[in-house]
Specification:
Elements: E1 6-10, H1 26-29, H2 33-44, E2 52-55, H3 61-64, H4 70-82, E3 86-88, E4 91-92, H5 97-116, E5 122-126, H6 147-155, E6 164-168, H7 175-180, E7 187-194, E8 217-222, H8 228-246, E9 250-255, H9 272-288, E10 294-298, H10 304-318, H11 336-353
Parallel strand pairs: 1-2, 1-5, 5-10, 6-7, 6-9, 7-8, 9-10
Antiparallel strand pairs: 3-4
This protein binds zinc ion.
Length: 357
Amino acid sequence: MSKSKIGVVANPREPLHFASFPKPNLEAFENPLRTQMAIHYLETSGALERLERYDAPKASVEDALLVHSPYLVDTVSLMSEIGSGQLGESAYASPELLRSALLAVGGAKRALQAVITGEVQHSFAIVRPPGHHASFSNPMGLCYFNNVAIAATIALGDNNVNRVSIVDIDDHHGNGTSEIFYARRDVQYISVHEYDYENFGVGHFNEIGWGEGIGTNVNIPLVEATPDSSYEEACRRVITPALKQFKPDLIMVSAGFDAHFSDPVGNMNVDSKTFWKYGRELASLSASLGCRGTVWVLEGGYNPLAIGPCIHACLEGLGGQECPKLYDQIAREENELIVESNREVFDQVLGALEPHW
Ligand SMILES: [Zn+2]
């Protein structure tokens, strides 16, 4: 084991995929500034000094084929050559798309490798484009290759990893990851998200898996403007018991920060303290369950000034440090009605799943 127990994988500084749209188009917010400013924040705050740092290598097309159809991979490849065009809902090509998507997969793989080989206990891949909306055949929602799903599949090839849990804390439901592993009993998918009332059914608590996978898909659909206390309660009442029941050998995290109150895309009401708590709790569970460690991969989070503090808070939680006082932690009101509504959601989630645990 090296001196540092946490590693960070950084996207390269070269020009990367950017589908050129004006704001307020959703696509405009998923841009290279996100990872550049996050890494700049971690460098200037001194947070990176105590960590192992790795560059994201480029993955191969064969890695993408581990969870995606040849049709999806060919489409991403061909439209990158063309340099523009629409691949799916909110998924557009640029000349840098294929290379950037493979670098993001490579970053997730490197983060996984650092934990699997024991170089570090926990790792965080600060990469883009994100992945959790990309399903077997469909790029969508700013996602092309499902970075976490590919890394989880590779992890299961290790002799000591028979079960992987993926905890998705992005503001949105990771429909792609959920679909890819929906009938699998060796991959647990747990998503805490803002429920999309315009897409009834997607991310609903009654989606609990299929066939051998029944009970392994855990959706926690929270109401809009959910505050920190409900996220803490979701962790205590659902995520922690679900992980204890599943007993994974490895915990992966789809680490989106668009639930931050300042995010221009998500509509929740949390700050970096919540992400510190999730870091602390998942590190503690990883140790008590005898996991190899935790592997975090960036998903959403579209305020480039908030992603850095949120990752910093996660890393401090993972390292067992006190919660740092960061500039995004400002006093905000909690709506008790929202907290009560979420309590009903937790009851419904557990009611749907517990018979299968
Ligand atoms: Zn999101």
